[in-house]
Automatic annotation (TrEMBL):
Family statement: Belongs to the PBP/GOBP family.
Gene from which this protein is expressed: Dana\Obp99b-1
Xref: PANTHER family: GENERAL ODORANT-BINDING PROTEIN 99A-RELATED, ODORANT BINDING PROTEIN-RELATED
Sorted UniProt keywords: Disulfide bond, Secreted, Signal
Lineage: Eukaryota, Metazoa, Ecdysozoa, Arthropoda, Hexapoda
Protein name: Odorant-binding protein 99b-1
CDD domains: PBP_GOBP
Amino acid sequence: MKVLIVFLVGVAFVLAGPHHEHGHEGHYEIKSHDDLVSYRTACAEKVHATEDLVEKYKKWQFPDDAVTHCYMACVFEKFGFYDAEHGFDVHKVHMQLAGPSVHVNHSDEMHQKIVDCAESHKEGDSCAKAYHAGMCFMNANLRLVQHSVQV
């Protein structure tokens, strides 16, 4: 469950879109594991995910289907770093992954990986964009994503 939350946080970071800032980076509050659990539950209900799908999510298995796409987009929205109109706020995703009390260098390699994933996954509807960018990020940075959710 914790791993899923970390993953979703990571995915949201990846989907932040083309180097844009939503203008609230300085005001972003790092979300906790409890927040993630709450978001996961709310989003599973919102998209009517089956028990089988929820079990897969807990095991870091995210099928490429419409329900899972919207589930991931929902979780990212709840984290506050994704919205359908603007895409991902890469800076906020990076801040979430870095964790509390860590200075984030937005010119480092990690930041660029997030940007690259967000920019290379712009096809489809909002849910599909969030899913594919998130999977890109997770595949590139699984260990970091897992660590950030377990905190």
